[in-house]
Amino acid sequence: MKKKIISAVLCLTMVAGLVVGCSNGGAGNSDGEDKSSKEGDKKYTIGLSQGTMNHPFRVAMVDENVAYAEENYPEFEVITTDGQNDSATQVQNVEDLLARGIDLLIISPLTADALTPVCQKAMDQGIPVVTLDRNVECEVTCYVGAENKPMGVASADKLAEALNGKGKIVEIQGTAGTSATIDRHDGFAEQLEAEYPDMEVIATQYCDYLREDAMAFMDDTLQRFGPGEIDAIYCHNDEMALGALEALRAAGREDEDILITGMDGTEVAFKEIEEGNMFFTVFYPYCAPEGMQAAYEILEGDGVEQRWELETAVIDKDNVKDWIGKGL
Q1: Are 328 and 264 in contact (CB under 8 A)?
Q2: What tens digit of pLDDT does each residue of 220-244 get?
Q3: Which band of pLDDT confidence, cut at 50, 70 and 90, is reported for residue 40?
Q4: Burial of 151 (0-12, 13-18, 19+ CB in 10 A)
Q5: Residues linked to residue 261 through DSSP beta bridges, in sequence order
Q6: Is the distance from CB of 309 to CB of 13 less than 8 angstroms?
Q7: How confident is the model at residue 11 (pLDDT cuts 50, 70, 90)?
Q8: Which of 27, 126, 222, 298 is the most exposed place for a label (fewest CB within 10 A)?
């Protein structure tokens, strides 16, 4: 089902990404080892490094890319690793993958600064690097993902429209230092400053994209601000939006008409939108199977663009019925 979603929502972007390519020179092991089988078929080892597997978005990114490779690219051996939400662990994972002689690295970095040196090391060794969703601070072969900053801008605009340009907002941010968190915050904050001076963020905290962390933060925030003092809660993903909703319910304040927004596009969020408990979410594709498709085009095709941009979509009560059954 998820493959159908990606195909339906992103087909135009995928075609564009595959047609116009950059050179795939330097692909493969730096030691020049010939991985051809006795039958002459080239074999490749792909390292897939995930920053954390504590979120359905991250799990889907890995599982769908691996499943796509198994079905379509029998010449690929895929080795997956889990950084366990710790940058040092993910760095060591990548070091281990490089030591094993991978031909290409696919990585969704936990944080940009911590994972940049090891991604640069891979590039220096002639090993192509494909980053998914989050980027690093060095040049890589291909970045696959959507633009996060416009998602923040769109969220600010939609909240401003609903609140007539005036309101007090709680912002629940993702993981500090990640490109997605920075862009989702900056897009939102800059749009408020530029267009909506009467809309104010009254409280904010990093909650690592985790539901339980967001719920704990909102428990504290609801004690600080009484009824009528919060108009909206802007969350960097659906899991944290659902945590905020749980906190409102636990405090008996779910009927205050506080607008809750999320990002990513989970089935649970779609259901809450349908029932009127969340205002909207912004669908963010989880970079599968595009990550594995990019790897194939680099290793055996004509190469891909350095940025493979995917499409997003705002999902609210007006179109949520079209998305039920298509989320994470």
Answers
A1: yes
A2: 999 999 999 999 999 999 999 999 9
A3: very low
A4: buried
A5: 234, 280
A6: yes
A7: very low
A8: 126
Please, what is the Cα angle at 123 between 51 and 312, to 5 degrees? 50
Q: What is the dihedral of CA 309, 240, 276, 10, to 10 degrees?
A: 10
Lookup result for tokens 């980027």: 135
Q: Which pTM was predicted?
A: 0.81
Determine contact, residues 298/19, Cβ cutoff 8 Å.
Answer: no
Tell me how far apart the alpha carbons of residues 198 and 214 are, in angstroms, rounded to a whole number: 25
Residues in the chain, total: 328
The pair of three-digit structure tokens given for residue 173, joined into one six-digit string: 């941010």
Supply 139's token pair: 């040049």
Residue whose token pair is 């809450």? 272
CA distance 181 to 294: 24
Query: In angstroms, rounded to a whole number, what is the distance separating the alpha carbons of residues 57 and 328?
Result: 7
